[in-house]
Design goal:
Elements (H helix, E strand, L loop, with lengths): L1 E11 L4 E10 L2 E6 L8 E4 L4 E4 L1 E6 L12 H11 L1 E6 L10 H14 L3 E4 L15 H7 L4 E2 L8 H14 L3 E3 L4 H4 L4 E2 L2 H6 L3 E2 L1 H18 L3 E3 L5 H12 L4 E5 L1 H5 L21 H12 L5 E2 L8 H4 L16 H10 L6 H15 L15 E11 L18 E11 L2 E7 L2 E4 L4 H5 L1
Parallel strand pairs: 1-4, 1-5, 6-7, 7-8, 9-10, 10-13, 11-12, 13-14, 14-15
Antiparallel strand pairs: 1-2, 2-3, 5-16, 16-17, 17-18, 18-19
Helix pairs in contact: 2-3, 4-7, 7-8, 8-10
The chain binds (4S)-2,6-dioxohexahydropyrimidine-4-carboxylic acid and zinc ion (2 copies).
One zinc ion binds next to loops.
Length: 441
């Protein structure tokens, strides 16, 4: 099987390539990147006027499978990923049961392989059942295929357990993905603490809820030598701490979500829980610090924290609705519109933060267009203008605060291992997974 992607602006951080090139793939592998390639191929795609990036990688998604499949399944989540331009996603373990055993890791991998061509990689829990007490078997989890360990949804609150886990992670050489939230300090909080929360009569979540654990975990990573990745950073202080850690040469990385760089707390009106997520939308000052951190590469990764919930759950009063919003199908559009078109990031930085850097963190060989590597490729139309319509989402979750937003920049082609898994052409879309029923539709 040969695929030729012609005449696009190739952006490959690994080789530093930024220029008009053709890409030839053969049997799932990148064969050649060059000018005016001529080859007999099965499929030829004209990418003139488009950007060609290594397949996008999202280090942070929730697919709810098993246990909460009314919110999402691996199949629907993977379809949403492909539609958003992602060829690899890392799944958080807060399913039911929690992914805390080698068997559960293998089961997640098996399920994904049955339904999708994209790569759905499991992240395993730090403690059994995410109860914060008994550390899981990191070596066994890694051997089964877990790419990281995380307690996402909460923090390991006991610092002694957290430190032990980081020592073990360092020994096992598996990264720790930290959700930073002091649950005692968060208490009943549902949105950013401050005057706006007061005016809405809602309990606030202080920046310190995040800052305390971010600082603690950086200190413990220093002490234990583990690779630490901070999830969904939302505060000015977290950016400062990460900057300091990186200046000291510590193996600390950090991600920012599109919602945290696109919105601030003033978007919350106290009725629409599509604006409720954890950590919450912060102050303008925090958002500006995140933008600066992205710009100066303190913040190396853009991840979605794709967190689907049912319409019923999200229609509850703000204080009662679950935290979380979907993100896979708006990430490219928001990153292009809010960061690239506004000059916060160069196109190459976007390729770094959405593909190359995430690949480095999980030690994946993907995230590049170097010949010989897997042919995971994402083609973006930088000028395409579109309006976010949750009804068109492949995800079961329609819980987005961006409905009706006009965005500039969209995914037009997603290729996983040399196979087209998503294509947008002249307003019509094709999604391909291993579900024969979809192919027949
Ligand atoms: O908004 C969030 N949703 N934050 C989390 O930490 C968990 C996630 C979820 O699982 O719904
Ligand atoms: Zn989280
Ligand atoms: Zn999460």
């Amino acid at each position: 099987m040969k695929l030729l992607i012609r005449g696009g602006r190739v952006l490959d951080p690994a080789s530093g390539t930024d220029g008009i090139r053709d890409i030839l793939t053969e049997n799932g592998v990148i064969r050649e990147v060059g000018e005016n390639l001529n080859a007999e191929v099965d499929t030829c795609v004209d990418a003139s006027g488009k950007w060609v990036l290594p397949g996008l990688i999202d280090l942070h998604v929730h697919f709810r499978d098993p246990g909460f499949t009314d919110k999402e399944t691996i199949r629907t989540g993977a379809r949403a990923a492909a539609r958003g331009g992602f060829t690899t996603v890392c799944q958080m373990p807060n399913t039911r049961p929690v992914v805390d055993s080698a068997e559960a890791v293998r089961e997640a991998i098996h399920k994904a392989e049955e339904c999708t061509y994209i790569h759905v990689l499991p992240i395993a829990a730090i403690t059994a059942g995410q109860d914060g007490e008994y550390i899981t078997d990191f070596a066994g989890l890694k051997a089964a295929g877990a790419v990281a360990v995380s307690e996402d949804g909460k923090s390991v609150m006991n610092a002694r357990v957290a430190r032990q886990a980081m020592r073990l992670a360092a020994l096992t050489d598996i990264p720790v993905f930290a959700h930073c939230e002091d649950i005692n300090l968060r208490a009943h909080g549902v949105m950013n603490a401050g005057a706006h929360a007061k005016s809405l009569g809602l309990y606030g979540i202080l920046n310190a809820v995040e800052d305390i654990i971010a600082a603690r975990d950086i200190l413990l990573a220093t002490d234990t030598g583990c690779r630490l990745h901070l999830c969904h950073c939302s505060t000015e202080n977290t950016v400062r701490f990460v900057k300091k850690a990186r200046q000291l040469g510590l193996p600390v990385s950090a991600e920012v979500t599109p919602h945290h760089f696109s919105l601030d707390e003033t978007a919350v009106d106290g009725t629409d829980s599509n604006f409720k997520m954890n950590p919450p939308l912060r102050s303008r000052r925090d958002v500006d610090a995140l933008l600066e951190g992205l710009h100066d590469d303190t913040m190396e990764v853009i991840s979605t924290d794709h967190a689907p919930h049912t319409a019923e759950e999200k229609s509850r009063p703000f204080a009662q609705a679950p935290f979380g919003i979907v993100g896979l199908e708006t990430s490219v559009g928001l990153t292009m519109t809010q960061l690239v078109h506004k000059g916060v990031l160069t196109p190459m930085q976007m390729a770094q933060k959405m593909s190359y850097n995430p690949a480095q963190i999980i030690k994946s060989q993907r995230g590049t267009l170097l010949p010989g590597r897997a042919a995971d490729i994402t083609v973006i139309d930088p000028e395409a203008e579109w309006t976010v319509n949750p009804r068109l989402f492949a995800s079961k979750g329609k819980n987005t605060p961006f409905a009706g937003w006009k965005l500039k920049g969209r995914t037009v082609l997603t290729v996983a291992d040399g196979r087209i898994v998503y294509e947008y052409r002249e307003g019509s879309e094709t999604l391909i997974d291993k579900d024969v029923r979809h192919l027949e539709e």
